[in-house]
């Protein structure tokens, strides 16, 4: 897998399959959204009872979409978006497994479905961002 590095002098070209530095920044942003959303869960459950039940799911979808949307100069935006969103999930996974009382309730099906959701949402967001990027480049 080739990536375009920040100091490679090819920043404006789309040579790499994914844009490595942008993927790391996107995964970090997704991780931050997942972390803040998880910390706000008790408040959302208390003050927004209807939305509170789905708060973590909504937070995850938003985090994966934001991470997947940041495609930079990636040649394959859907792959880049999927990698960035999955990266954000993998960054928060140790915290999920480390929480007391939660590790017994987290099973393989949950982990695989969350990873699949990250890949799917990230790929869709990346593909849409790629269409917007390529459409605006064609108009210029």
Automatic annotation (TrEMBL):
The UniProt keywords, alphabetically, are:
Membrane, Transmembrane, Transmembrane helix
List all membrane-crossing ranges.
44-66, 78-99, 111-130
Origin superkingdom: Bacteria
Protein name from the UniProt record: Uncharacterized protein
Naturally occurring in which organism (per UniProt): Pseudonocardia bannensis
């Amino acid at each position: 897998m080739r990536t375009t590095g920040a100091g490679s002098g090819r920043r404006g070209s789309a040579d790499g399959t994914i844009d490595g530095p942008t993927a790391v920044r996107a995964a970090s942003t997704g991780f931050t959204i997942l972390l803040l959303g998880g910390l706000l869960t008790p408040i959302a459950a208390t003050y927004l009872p209807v939305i509170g039940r789905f708060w973590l799911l909504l937070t995850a979808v938003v985090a994966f979409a934001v991470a997947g949307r940041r495609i930079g100069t990636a040649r394959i935006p859907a792959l880049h978006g999927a990698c960035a969103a999955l990266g954000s999930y993998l960054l928060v996974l140790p915290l999920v497994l480390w929480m007391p009382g939660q590790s017994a309730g987290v099973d393989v099906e949950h982990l695989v479905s969350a990873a699949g959701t990250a890949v799917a949402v990230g790929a869709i967001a990346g593909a849409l961002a790629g269409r917007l990027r390529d459409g605006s480049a064609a108009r210029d």
